[in-house]
Amino acid sequence: MNPSPRVFLQAEPLTPDAFAPFGQVIERNGRHSHVINDGSSRRYDDLAQLEADRDGRLALSIFQATTRLSPFLLNTMERHPLGSQAFFPLQGQAFLIAVSARAPDPDHPDIGSLRAFLSNGLQGVNFRKDVWHHPLIALSDGDFLVADRLGPGNNCEEIDIARWQVGIRH
Amino acid sequence: MNPSPRVFLQAEPLTPDAFAPFGQVIERNGRHSHVINDGSSRRYDDLAQLEADRDGRLALSIFQATTRLSPFLLNTMERHPLGSQAFFPLQGQAFLIAVSARAPDPDHPDIGSLRAFLSNGLQGVNFRKDVWHHPLIALSDGDFLVADRLGPGNNCEEIDIARWQVGIRH
Q1: Would A60 be classed as within a structural domain?
Q2: What is the pTM of this model?
């Protein structure tokens, strides 16, 4: 049984401008495109810039996610110092994103700078390297295509924030 | 109006073994996974290995594809000498894949080595660099997430093969 949230974070709509400090929103809506393949496709180009250090490499994986309880209490923040991490929902399912700006302490997420976003299900996100974020918060059971960095070295730092008792409203 | 196919290529089921000479099949089905994120997700790890040369970088894009006419006549083969190219259907839509082994002539696709595969809609593919393949063949209107290499240099070679008059059966 989850403890009750002490404070609530209101999820914002996921827009490229609002999310810019943390990475990129991956979506067609409102973006430029050009026609390719003899007129049979439109390419919405370069929506997410993947990053990996020289010792690593980029790969695609699938996360099979189960529904998180509501109201959802943030429990962990993590960051990937060696590369970016992108998520895209494969059944058009909405999901929540929680991030923390790095200031004032670059080595810890910061409760005062937490922000939450709601993907509409046609939107993915790409977290830039070093951006503190909550592990995937699914609102329904479903799959996500993930693009991230694999290879030697520790690419995941985690901090337990359950004691902050922050819930997300959406 | 398309001319009629002179020969037909029978699409094979898309399996990792059958597709191995050309790249990777991106799917959960039949793959190993491990539990992550405090038990809330399963990770099917490293399903596609993305490749880019040192001068390039990897990015995510979306292709909005329209239905190709049936019977579909192959018109072009292309290859990307500077990196891999991955496609994953975002509405669970089936699609066709056509590839050519490089022998006997590494600089041209070869009609005798053409093979066609049918994705079941829960499967994506990643073409290894230098693999000759047909541009996206959608069987219904829908979107694909694409991971490929961007950057300087010519990363797309194309050869017109319409004169071969090869159709695909599926």
Answers
A1: yes
A2: 0.96
Write the residue in B36, B75, B91 that is nearest to A38 by C-beta. B75
Would the CB atoms of B147 and A44 count as touching at under 8 Å?
no
Q: How far apart are CA A1 and CA B129, in angstroms?
A: 49
In a domain, residue B35? The reply is: yes
Mean pLDDT value of segment B71-84: 93
Query: For residue B45, what is the nearest residue in chain A, using CA coordinates?
Result: A61
Assess if residue A97 is contained within a domain: yes
Q: Do the strands A7-10 and A166-169 form a parallel or antiparallel pair, or are they unpaired? A: parallel
Per the rule left: phi > 0, alpha: psi between -120 and 50, beta: everything else, B22 is alpha
Q: Is the pLDDT of residue A103 over 70?
A: no
Structural domain count of chain A: 1
C-beta of residue B169 within 8 angstroms of C-beta of residue B73: no
Taking an 8 Å cut-off on Cβ atoms, the answer to whether A135 and B41 are in contact is: yes
Domain that residue A83 falls in? 7-169
The pLDDT value given to residue B103: 58
CATH number at residue A54: 2.60.120.480
pLDDT above 90: residue B135 = yes
Structural contact between residues B127 and B22, judged by C-beta atoms closer than 8 angstroms: yes
B12 by Cβ neighbours in 10 Å (0-12 / 13-18 / 19+) ranks as middle
Query: What separation in angstroms does the CA of B129 have from each of B63, B79, B164?
Result: 19, 7, 24
Which chain A residues are within 8 Å of B126, Cβ to Cβ?
A: 60
